[in-house]
Amino acid sequence: xxxxxxxxxxxxxxxxxxxxxxxxVGHQQAVRLGQFWRERGQRFDAVITGTLQRHVQTLDGIVxxxxxxxxxxxxxxxxxxxxxxxxxxxxxxxxxPADTPERYRAHFRILCDAxxxxxxxxxxxxxxxxxxxxxxxxxxxLDHVRHHHAGQNVLLVSSGGPISTAVGEVLGTAxxxxxxxxxxxxxxxxxxFSISPKRLxxxxxxxxxxxxxxxxxxxxxxx
Length: 223
Prior knowledge:
The protein has helices at about 25-40, 55-65, 85-90, 100-120, 130-150, 160-170, 175-185, and strands spanning about 1-10, 45-50, 70-75, 155-160, 190-195, 200-205. The two termini are about 35 Å apart. α1 (about 25-40) crosses α2 (about 55-65).
């Protein structure tokens, strides 16, 4: 039986004009994950990513630490939802920078509310697919893995939204649980599914084995 390793991108540039760019810490997280796997002789038969810059940069960092990996299949269905569009759909007034703990918490409270309304079909954020179409893109990627890579080890690099959606699909979770999972996935965290032609099964969720050492404690991030 093979294993699908789903990796959330490294720390991006939260609060910056262009979020879709790894921070220096995000690059370190990705390289360290690759090094961790290289030290344990981990190899991948296939690699899949979304098409966002932070996905590509995270994979580049992993490969830098790992040494080698197959050419990646890039699937737009693994791209993240647009958090700005979601928030704007229920809170048209600008929120301002999330530069204090209070503003940071307020940002994510509103985002969670917007996610719930989007998943229920109550809102249609500008420029975004419906929830049904978004989740179908994630299911399509999972179906590709089941049909083409049973018995193999597959690396998938994406974002918190698609990864929590994948977990929700496998476990059959309610929307509010999927949202809660989404909010807890850490940068460069690894979630594992066992792969068979018939189904995927969750083995681990949101782990950071590559950052367990004391010297990496301040590399654990969420944004």
